[in-house]
Amino acid sequence: MKINQFAHAPAAFETKLEELSKLRFIKADAQQEDLNLLWKNLLLKCFPQAKCLAQKHEKLASLAATKTESVPEFIEKKTVNLTVFYAVAMQLLQFEPDTEFDIDNPLKSMDELGVFHADKLEDSTDLISAFYDLLATHGKNGQTLLDHLGNLGFFLDFYDLPVSEKPVFFNGKAQPVFDTTKLIFEVVYVESDLDTDHDGKADLLKAEIIRPKDTEEGLKVPALYTASPYNQGTNDATVEAMTHNVNVKLTRKTPDSLTYDEIKYTAKPKTEIKKQTVNGTVKSANETFPREFSYTLNDYMLARGFAAVYAAGIGTMDSDGFRTCGSKEETESTTAIIEWLAGNRKAFIDKTSGIEIKAWWCNKHVAMTGKSYLGTLATAAATTGVEGLSTIISEAAISNWYDYYRDGGLVVAPDGFPGEDADVLAEDCFSRRKQSGDFLHVKKDWENHLAKITRGQDRTTGSYNTFWDARNYLKDVQNIKCDVVMVHGLNDWNVKPRNVYNLYNALQKLPVVSKLVLHQGQHIYVNNFQSLDFTDMMNLWLSHKLYGLENGAEKLLPNVLVQDNVKESTWHAKDSWIDEDADEVVLKATPCGKLKPLSAEKCSADGHDGNCHAKELQFKDSLDQKDFEAYVSDIAKWKHDLASENTPLDSNRIVWKSTAFDKDIVLEGAPKVSLRVKSSRDYGMLSFMLIDYGTDKRLGEVPTTLARKAIDCGFHWRTDDLMEFKLAKATPFKMITKGHLNLQNRTNLWHADDLSADEYVEIDVVLQPMLHRIKAGHQLGLIVYSTDMGMTVRGNEDIRYTLDGTKTRLTINVKNLN
Amino acid sequence: MKINQFAHAPAAFETKLEELSKLRFIKADAQQEDLNLLWKNLLLKCFPQAKCLAQKHEKLASLAATKTESVPEFIEKKTVNLTVFYAVAMQLLQFEPDTEFDIDNPLKSMDELGVFHADKLEDSTDLISAFYDLLATHGKNGQTLLDHLGNLGFFLDFYDLPVSEKPVFFNGKAQPVFDTTKLIFEVVYVESDLDTDHDGKADLLKAEIIRPKDTEEGLKVPALYTASPYNQGTNDATVEAMTHNVNVKLTRKTPDSLTYDEIKYTAKPKTEIKKQTVNGTVKSANETFPREFSYTLNDYMLARGFAAVYAAGIGTMDSDGFRTCGSKEETESTTAIIEWLAGNRKAFIDKTSGIEIKAWWCNKHVAMTGKSYLGTLATAAATTGVEGLSTIISEAAISNWYDYYRDGGLVVAPDGFPGEDADVLAEDCFSRRKQSGDFLHVKKDWENHLAKITRGQDRTTGSYNTFWDARNYLKDVQNIKCDVVMVHGLNDWNVKPRNVYNLYNALQKLPVVSKLVLHQGQHIYVNNFQSLDFTDMMNLWLSHKLYGLENGAEKLLPNVLVQDNVKESTWHAKDSWIDEDADEVVLKATPCGKLKPLSAEKCSADGHDGNCHAKELQFKDSLDQKDFEAYVSDIAKWKHDLASENTPLDSNRIVWKSTAFDKDIVLEGAPKVSLRVKSSRDYGMLSFMLIDYGTDKRLGEVPTTLARKAIDCGFHWRTDDLMEFKLAKATPFKMITKGHLNLQNRTNLWHADDLSADEYVEIDVVLQPMLHRIKAGHQLGLIVYSTDMGMTVRGNEDIRYTLDGTKTRLTINVKNLN
Questions:
Q1: Looking at domain B583-816, which of 3.40.190.10, 2.60.120.260, 2.60.40.4070, 3.40.50.12160 is its CATH number?
Q2: In the annotation, is B572 catalytic?
Q3: Where do the X-Prolyl dipeptidyl aminopeptidase PepX N-terminal domain residues begin and end (chains A, B) (predicted)?
Q4: Domain B180-518 architecture
Q5: Which residues of B touch A151 (CB under 8 A)?
Q6: What is the pLDDT of residues B3-44, one digit of tens each?
């Protein structure tokens, strides 16, 4: 267990005094108080669940000051000092003496755990200062002490503060002074400028809003807006039937001379769309909604003075229009909600009455949140520069749909979803289908529309075309005006890391602030981790961006924060993805299976005579039908066997390994593989993996649930599970990154190169980016193969590939650690 | 997908009219209304999320009446009939046309899915009747339509009903007319007659109460009480260190002549304990609490007029006393809360003031709920006959702690927890340790107390002794006065099925009503399953038992309800665990590895000459150290290999198999194995498994999450995930049941028989009970082995066992299915 806090804001003593007294922890004369009395009174404040002083005293006696004395016993005879203060503080943070910290020497334990502490406690000033910092310190349950007190009811007395005194901030972060039992749930219908279902009427878009009751008293609050195409339901049974068969052969592309300009997407001019006549305006909506499909970060902020807004967009249940899977129309359907929140677009209380409703309760500052498609739409919205969007927290987001469903001129599925494609996802999210009485009128149009998407995505060639160019948000990055937080899993093979890497790199060239969090998970949220104060970081960020609080968020949060892949619960702050002092290293992959520095000209060091026998390296793509089928039905086994030896895949790939490293190194950024290859056919594809070889305990693939429902988002409000990546059983290796290339896309992704059977061609392929520490004693491996059972088509064809054994190179950025 | 409803109560038409009008679905003259108008008005009631009529009409148009017409379009031209009524009904139940039902023939789909429907709809009476039943019908999301409407806000208008009109029942079940945003959360301290920490003062027990606001207006509500020793936290780090080493040899027991009377537990006479002086009485508690460790069944009922009470008992955080792991004191600490709820015991607002607080809001009817230790304490409480306890819903409960931590004179751990024992669990739940300032005063006493438990449990012999006799609730079953619901997983190898089997059998002899639900899960709750209306069943049961509603619950709920292990989502109602028409069948296990009917005297049918060569069957217990360690670290692999061939375990067990059955059979009750065996040492143990052999898809070991947070416990209230067992990948076999015996406990569990090396003894061993269907084409297998890697000690000793090849018999109850 280790605690990493980045949103613990240093504060001047005057600020501490002021904020503590605002929260009624201390009175004006606190500095004059007797040290023990001050301490006792502060501790008594830590039992808000007890309503009378006698009972608070009972609770106080449950805290140990030393191995032999409870706090009341200690206070009777001795005076609080640094050690005793933190011995008690650790208990308040829910750490347990003996097993989790040493009560005789809490500071040592705190240092080991990474828990903040002061170094001096001699007078009331020190005590007040230390107590302030303690309130902002993370405990064992993934929250600050103040959050914990809030969960016990501390802020109940603040619910009734006049709105002029709300929200309440402490240590730069908004506090739960909003009564979540009185939240207002309402639905509005935002009128877009779209007509994606071509019925001649502007598509109306349903938005679900949750806002604090205080808005009714005049408080203007910002909105956390999550655009989730899934949140009105999905058509799982329908899409199961339309998922594409991936057990098909790779198709040779007819060579062409296409240029980018020929496939470039250009928006069609807009046609006039009929809008509703306004028949009046009201302040209250006419519709409520049951439990929404929420994000717990939004839930947390709801208790702290932020509204939450959920909208699913065109073609979802209760909205008009059709899904388009990532096109400009979907972006526009996303920004329409922001425009309404910012006062620049109309919404109605229903779909027919023409009664308008404004977002009169909103302070016109909006942040977008959410993961995957949700984060993707946040990114998409940001690239429009829409007014009112102050920031996005874009998690595991697609930045270019080609990088989601395609790679290197190939159809490459997100891992775990073979056969999925843009059309499948469009259908899956087309929850308007569930309104059967409405759907029956648009069924035909929808089928035609969907067929167009199927044609546009072009599974035959896998090339980058106009369809994909229309779905490439990177083209519009320069329009981004808001500051951006990105979160991505370095093991996310659903939305592959290139998506965030390209966005991150593009943002570095713009005059906006960007922050990047890279974790060791797959396709997950990280706001419920024990080791990281992600929620606090976002609270700090959102309090600054949406309420304009000057809390130093931009400086406090690291530019790049990366979770260590070797040690549990360890996060590193960095300036950039690739460190300035990283070296670009070129390794040659020798015919005898070694990865060596370019300068090591001969193989003799490894017992060879310097003239390796095999100047050509061959591998095949086909498998016995039985092995093939076994791998199709067990992709995990295929992944394992590919990097192992003595398996049915031995002749289906070439493996190179470095010698064991004598110290830890970190591989950064996107590696490049260059080689000369020939295919036995006039078409072909190569896949690549970098592997960390070395039997070792590694972080689990999925985080462990430390405690179910252990995180309260507020007092008697929603909960989250407390999670953490733990070291799992030892494994012999781990895949670091991968890449794919169609041999007919050597030049670029839109134009098909020629290829002849049995003729060498040279290729350069950039793999997915990485940030991976290889431990001393481990080896780096490179694997070249063809069919990727989990991602590419699987033709099980008799194709052989031959590499020029002397020409394979791997270029990587390496940071040597001391 | 299949829906199984047992709590759908048949109702007279007059009742239907009355209840529908009470819920404001219809007016007095409904029967006179035009059929279409009546239908439309009923449908408009199904959109409580829309607050005005115009908007309800918009929603109505989202329903399809036929393949080509929405409901409004249909109504304009045609009149509702049976088909159209159910085509729309199925949409209200959230089934989707095309993929989930045939809109042209909904009745056929409903029959296939098991969804209730009427067979005639010709006039308003039929329509009203059908609509009533529809409201009580389960949909795709595991809830009734009326629950679904409640989740959309239907009952908001009923929150303000005068308490004289609350609770509201419909179809025999309580409805969510209680405002969960106004629940009262309070803590009281119940004064017990115990002094388990020997401080001379009565142990005070913390209870957390959640009750509807309506109680403040005079409503008396029953209480659902969950006694969970875990709910104040557990000492996981502490117990990790004290978990017992199971890689130890089996110990020979010194033969003795102990009788039961010599080990029988007798309670010590009670000594006087100092009670608090009452210094006054108040109506409101002084303490609240954050998010409790809740059971979603309680959450569901909270919205329906039942209070929830959680208490952890002696030795848990904020309570006094010590944990005893299942002793009489723990039972008494459990019933103390009930006595307070029933008005027969004192509670205080804190631990020192002497200010009393009564459960004035309680109607003195209490039900206990919860799974595992929670269900165990419910069973324990029931065996006291305590006044006020009207029923228990005891899930996956221990009925005898010997059957939890021991078996057949052996230390046998709950599966997945090797090395756990009563002392470990006592320490784990001793959350009083977390009150460090209090704990430091009782540390020594606690350590002495714990050492006594360790001695008492006696891991050396594994015999039944006074310690275990004190923890055998079955001895007191005759005291049970309340009706009992039992729920248990047929694959629960944590709390093994014998626990529920023995309780079930004992209850059949008592004048109480008992109901048994046997599911195919392991150690899980089943209140969130799509296929079963368990929550409705419990609502029906609790409305009857705690509010006295005459709803036919006792007749409607089957005596035994068992989930099919072959088909998905299929539940069978039965009269008893073992069907009356089941046959007791004796199979002989032949020297050549066959399981045959006793009458088949010779093996010749299988190609043998009738005189099998091997009259003795030998197997060893030891393994190569490497194999041993591999199995220790991968119990799943051991389980797999034991029943497979060509594994390191080939010589470590004897396997017999029946011929393939030509039709399905069901094995019922507890099988018995009889055999003659000799050990190569003067001690030894045997383990047994019955196996269902036959490569087939079987239900997954754990249920699949169909939809996260899809079940609302009420409007904007807590949620649960929707779960179901789905058929998983084909497996070659499945374990049905198992058993264990120490060869020195041939006579009984408390007395140690003598055993000489290499001398035959005869044994009878009753395995854990089962209720398992073997499909036609499958074979029944019996395996005899010694060390159970997951449960027994693992000495990896050089012991060989020899069976008399002609004397092994298996006795089972078999029901032949037609």
A1: 2.60.120.260
A2: no
A3: 1-154
A4: 3-Layer(aba) Sandwich (3.40)
A5: 290-291
A6: 999 999 999 999 999 999 999 999 989 999 999 999 999 999
